[in-house]
Design a protein that fits this description.
The chain is mostly helical and 166 residues long. It contains 5 helices and no strands. It has one domain. Helices cover 70% and strands 0% of the residues. The longest helix is centred in the C-terminal third of the chain and has 34 residues. The protein is elongated. The protein binds protoporphyrin IX containing FE (HEM) (2 copies).
């Protein structure tokens, strides 16, 4: 059980909830088809967005690495290990998404608009998008389960539905 008042830092919380807005915007702005990149304006927008997205993911990971998963709450080791794998998995696919997007843009700029290279880049892009959906679903389900058990982890990050005594 987390000792009362043990909470993630304001910066950790701002990064967590602020990033969700950026991710949501990325999903909203997702391209339907490669041919949309014929518009140079859109291609430049996508590249700038992907660079900002990637930098924030890397800086966030760099900052958050100093904190132990669950802030050291004594929960079963398997639970902590699974959470760590899911958290790192989220970082990996949230980095792979803009990286593969930049590869798509780079190839397209080189005139490689079809073929195995572009198919591979789009394939990785699509895979990392799908993986992010699955991991985030597992993450939110686990967070709600932890909230129901009243371990205090929810309250360390989430500003609503706070656990009593935390
Ligand atoms: C309602 C939705 C969500 C809830 C209730 C929630 C809850 C939490 C909680 C309680 C933690 C802290 C875990 C710990 O102390 O180790 C956490 C960490 C994390 N969350 Fe969420 N989360 C939500 C949505 C999301 C979404 C949409 C993303 C990704 C886009 C995300 C990515 C992460 C990551 C990467 C961490 C690990 C931070 C770190 O230690 O490096 N979360 N979340
Ligand atoms: C230079 C940057 C980017 C380029 C050139 C790019 C390009 C594309 C293209 C061409 C598709 C359609 C793929 C298809 O035909 O199925 C696509 C889909 C998508 N993109 Fe991007 N993208 C970029 C950055 C991003 C970023 C930063 C996000 C972050 C959220 C993102 C999220 C998505 C999603 C969720 C899809 C739908 C994937 C699917 O369901 O298959 N993209 N993108």
């Amino acid at each position: 059980m987390l000792s009362p008042n043990q909470s993630h830092t304001p910066l950790a919380k701002a990064l967590h909830w602020g990033f969700i807005v950026l991710y949501g915007y990325g999903l909203l702005k997702q391209l339907e088809d490669l041919s949309e990149l014929e518009s140079t304006g859109l291609l430049v927008f996508e590249v700038v967005f992907a660079l900002i997205f990637l930098i924030i993911v890397v800086l966030r990971y760099g900052y958050m690495r100093r904190f132990e998963t669950f802030l050291g709450t004594p929960v079963p080791l398997t639970q902590k290990r699974v959470a760590r794998v899911v958290h790192v998995g989220m970082y990996l696919c949230l980095a792979l998404l803009p990286l593969s997007g930049l590869l798509i843009a780079g190839l397209y700029r080189q005139g490689i608009k079809t073929g195995p290279m572009q198919d591979l880049a789009v394939g990785i892009h699509s895979f990392s998008a799908s993986l992010s959906y699955v991991l985030i679903f597992i993450h939110i389900a686990a967070a709600i389960y932890s909230r129901i058990k009243g371990e205090g982890i929810w309250t360390s990050m989430v500003p609503v539905w706070k656990e009593q005594g935390h």
